[in-house]
Here is the input.
Amino acid sequence: MLQRIQTIFLAMVVIGMGIFLAFPIWSKVALAGGQSADLTALRLHHQINEVQSNEQPVYYLVALAIITAGVAAYAIFQYKNRILQSALCAVNSILMTVTMGLVIYFTFYKTAKLFDPELTGKYDIGFYGLVGAMLANVFANRFIRKDEREVQQSKRFR
Here is the structure.
Protein backbone atom coordinates (compact mmCIF):
# COMPACT_ATOMS: atom_id res chain seq x y z
CA MET A 1 0.00 0.00 0.00
CA LEU A 2 1.44 3.32 -1.02
CA GLN A 3 -0.14 5.22 1.86
CA ARG A 4 2.19 3.78 4.51
CA ILE A 5 4.60 6.03 6.39
CA GLN A 6 7.72 4.54 4.79
CA THR A 7 6.48 5.78 1.42
CA ILE A 8 6.62 9.33 2.74
CA PHE A 9 10.14 8.80 4.06
CA LEU A 10 11.30 7.24 0.79
CA ALA A 11 9.80 10.21 -1.08
CA MET A 12 11.75 12.46 1.28
CA VAL A 13 14.92 10.61 0.25
CA VAL A 14 14.17 11.40 -3.40
CA ILE A 15 13.46 15.06 -2.55
CA GLY A 16 16.60 15.31 -0.39
CA MET A 17 18.77 13.97 -3.18
CA GLY A 18 17.12 16.44 -5.57
CA ILE A 19 18.07 19.25 -3.18
CA PHE A 20 21.60 17.83 -3.05
CA LEU A 21 21.79 18.01 -6.84
CA ALA A 22 20.19 21.42 -7.27
CA PHE A 23 21.84 23.53 -4.59
CA PRO A 24 25.44 24.30 -3.53
CA ILE A 25 26.90 21.84 -1.04
CA TRP A 26 29.77 23.79 0.51
CA SER A 27 31.53 27.14 0.19
CA LYS A 28 34.57 28.89 1.62
CA VAL A 29 35.82 32.47 1.28
CA ALA A 30 39.35 33.60 2.20
CA LEU A 31 39.85 36.04 5.05
CA ALA A 32 41.44 38.49 2.61
CA GLY A 33 38.45 38.05 0.32
CA GLY A 34 40.41 37.36 -2.87
CA GLN A 35 39.92 33.61 -3.03
CA SER A 36 36.88 31.44 -2.76
CA ALA A 37 35.94 27.81 -3.25
CA ASP A 38 32.59 26.16 -3.66
CA LEU A 39 31.41 22.61 -4.15
CA THR A 40 28.30 21.61 -6.04
CA ALA A 41 27.27 18.17 -7.22
CA LEU A 42 28.81 18.99 -10.61
CA ARG A 43 32.07 20.72 -9.79
CA LEU A 44 34.59 21.95 -7.27
CA HIS A 45 35.31 25.56 -8.21
CA HIS A 46 38.31 27.49 -6.81
CA GLN A 47 38.43 31.19 -7.68
CA ILE A 48 42.04 32.28 -7.20
CA ASN A 49 41.53 35.93 -8.21
CA GLU A 50 39.35 37.88 -10.60
CA VAL A 51 41.05 36.34 -13.63
CA GLN A 52 42.24 32.89 -12.54
CA SER A 53 40.14 29.97 -11.44
CA ASN A 54 40.33 26.20 -11.23
CA GLU A 55 37.46 23.84 -11.83
CA GLN A 56 37.44 20.16 -11.06
CA PRO A 57 34.43 18.17 -12.26
CA VAL A 58 32.90 15.81 -9.70
CA TYR A 59 30.33 14.06 -11.85
CA TYR A 60 30.42 10.95 -9.69
CA LEU A 61 28.53 12.91 -7.01
CA VAL A 62 25.77 13.46 -9.58
CA ALA A 63 25.83 9.79 -10.53
CA LEU A 64 25.64 8.65 -6.89
CA ALA A 65 22.79 11.08 -6.15
CA ILE A 66 20.78 9.99 -9.19
CA ILE A 67 21.30 6.31 -8.41
CA THR A 68 20.28 6.89 -4.79
CA ALA A 69 17.13 8.76 -5.80
CA GLY A 70 16.32 6.08 -8.37
CA VAL A 71 16.72 3.25 -5.85
CA ALA A 72 14.49 5.11 -3.38
CA ALA A 73 11.85 5.74 -6.05
CA TYR A 74 11.96 2.06 -7.04
CA ALA A 75 11.70 1.02 -3.38
CA ILE A 76 8.49 3.04 -3.01
CA PHE A 77 6.73 0.71 -5.43
CA GLN A 78 8.09 -2.48 -3.86
CA TYR A 79 5.60 -2.26 -0.99
CA LYS A 80 4.43 -5.85 -1.50
CA ASN A 81 7.92 -7.22 -0.93
CA ARG A 82 9.10 -5.68 2.34
CA ILE A 83 12.32 -7.73 2.42
CA LEU A 84 13.39 -6.31 -0.96
CA GLN A 85 12.30 -2.83 0.14
CA SER A 86 14.46 -3.13 3.26
CA ALA A 87 17.41 -4.36 1.17
CA LEU A 88 17.01 -1.40 -1.18
CA CYS A 89 17.11 0.93 1.83
CA ALA A 90 20.34 -0.77 2.94
CA VAL A 91 21.82 -0.21 -0.52
CA ASN A 92 20.75 3.43 -0.31
CA SER A 93 22.45 3.75 3.07
CA ILE A 94 25.70 2.54 1.55
CA LEU A 95 25.38 4.85 -1.46
CA MET A 96 24.63 7.88 0.72
CA THR A 97 27.51 7.04 3.07
CA VAL A 98 29.88 6.95 0.09
CA THR A 99 28.44 10.26 -1.12
CA MET A 100 28.86 11.81 2.33
CA GLY A 101 32.43 10.49 2.53
CA LEU A 102 33.27 12.07 -0.82
CA VAL A 103 31.77 15.40 0.21
CA ILE A 104 33.76 15.39 3.46
CA TYR A 105 36.91 14.39 1.57
CA PHE A 106 36.50 17.36 -0.76
CA THR A 107 35.65 19.82 1.98
CA PHE A 108 38.33 18.84 4.49
CA TYR A 109 41.19 17.43 2.47
CA LYS A 110 41.05 18.76 -1.08
CA THR A 111 40.21 22.36 -0.26
CA ALA A 112 42.15 22.66 3.00
CA LYS A 113 45.37 22.95 0.98
CA LEU A 114 44.04 25.68 -1.28
CA PHE A 115 43.98 28.66 1.08
CA ASP A 116 43.46 29.56 4.76
CA PRO A 117 43.77 26.05 6.26
CA GLU A 118 42.31 27.27 9.57
CA LEU A 119 39.00 28.11 7.87
CA THR A 120 36.66 25.19 7.37
CA GLY A 121 34.04 26.86 5.20
CA LYS A 122 30.31 26.48 5.58
CA TYR A 123 27.92 23.80 4.48
CA ASP A 124 25.08 24.96 2.30
CA ILE A 125 21.56 23.65 1.69
CA GLY A 126 22.71 20.87 -0.65
CA PHE A 127 24.64 19.24 2.19
CA TYR A 128 21.63 19.41 4.47
CA GLY A 129 19.54 17.82 1.71
CA LEU A 130 21.91 14.85 1.84
CA VAL A 131 21.73 14.69 5.64
CA GLY A 132 17.93 14.85 5.53
CA ALA A 133 17.84 12.09 2.91
CA MET A 134 20.05 9.90 5.11
CA LEU A 135 17.78 10.40 8.11
CA ALA A 136 14.64 9.76 6.05
CA ASN A 137 16.20 6.55 4.73
CA VAL A 138 16.92 5.36 8.28
CA PHE A 139 13.33 6.05 9.34
CA ALA A 140 11.94 4.38 6.20
CA ASN A 141 13.97 1.26 6.90
CA ARG A 142 12.82 1.26 10.52
CA PHE A 143 9.14 1.41 9.56
CA ILE A 144 9.59 -1.24 6.85
CA ARG A 145 11.09 -3.61 9.42
CA LYS A 146 8.29 -2.75 11.86
CA ASP A 147 5.68 -3.65 9.22
CA GLU A 148 7.47 -6.91 8.47
CA ARG A 149 7.51 -7.84 12.18
CA GLU A 150 3.79 -7.10 12.46
CA VAL A 151 3.01 -9.25 9.42
CA GLN A 152 5.11 -12.13 10.76
CA GLN A 153 3.45 -11.82 14.14
CA SER A 154 -0.04 -11.86 12.59
CA LYS A 155 0.87 -14.97 10.57
CA ARG A 156 1.94 -16.69 13.76
CA PHE A 157 -1.43 -16.02 15.39
CA ARG A 158 -3.36 -17.63 12.52
Observations:
- The CA atoms of residues 57 and 119 lie 23 Å apart.
- The chain has four helices and five strands.
- The first strand starts at residue 26 and ends at 29.
